[in-house]
Amino acid sequence: MSELIALTPGEKTALEKLEERQRHVRRGAVLQRENEECGELFILRRGLMMSYVLLDDGSRQILRFLFPGDMLGVSSAVYREAPETLAALSDCVVSPFDRAALAQIMIDHPRLSAMVLVYGQIERVALTDRLAALGRTSAKARVAALLLELRNRLRGTDKTIANAFALGLTQEEIGDATGLTAVHVNRMLRQLEDDGMIAREAGRVTIVDERALVHTANYVNRYEGLNLAWLPKPRD
């Protein structure tokens, strides 16, 4: 949240309390399973996670990739059963907290409550972009958009990242996020490389021609262009 607003000491303390407990989650482990009863929310402190749903044919649709600082399972707060599965793509550390802690923050710090709404809307619009892409754009555009999204989100956790980053995903995982087979993902990555937009080496991707990649993907960074002037004043 400090990327978007200047947090007061009281707001920082309230957020730090949510992170008092830590739980290690091994790569591949499920933190929360779809359709199971859920009582906790989480903040991702370290690592990369994903949220997904399983379809009737057994296939998986990845909804979001989750990065350090993200609040996980917020949608589960309004349901008795989790609407999505949360799983670790790398060794992770999360901080679990219950609904009552979130409710108390909303009472004591309305601006932080508003920021939870802000991030929820950013995620909603990003998912809308993904939905439109799945139905209306080419396979190359979907993969290009995902690469840009990953690079931009990783920049939020590591300011040293410029145009090169560790991909951290298998081609199957990219396919489950973009509605493509792993074979098709491999073909699209090679096309982007052949077109001079990206370079790949040892699990890392370098964006060589960002303007062309953005144009190919018709990509919009939903973490930019925000209007937060309406946020309530902090109480401390």
TrEMBL record:
InterPro entries xrefs: cNMP-bd_dom, cNMP-bd_dom_sf, Env_Response_Regulators, HTH_CRP, RmlC-like_jellyroll, WH-like_DNA-bd_sf, WH_DNA-bd_sf
CDD domains in UniProt: CAP_ED (cd00038)
UniProt keyword annotations, A-Z: DNA-binding, Transcription, Transcription regulation
Cyclic nucleotide-binding domain mapped to chain residues: 15-106
One Pfam family cited in the UniProt record for this chain: HTH_Crp_2
A single MF term (Gene Ontology): DNA-binding transcription factor activity
PROSITE patterns: CNMP_BINDING_3, HTH_CRP_2
GO cellular component entries: cytosol
Record domain HTH crp-type: where: 137-211
PANTHER family associated with the record: CRP FAMILY TRANSCRIPTIONAL REGULATORY PROTEIN, REGULATORY PROTEIN YEIL
Protein name: Transcriptional regulator
Species of origin: Sphingomonas hengshuiensis
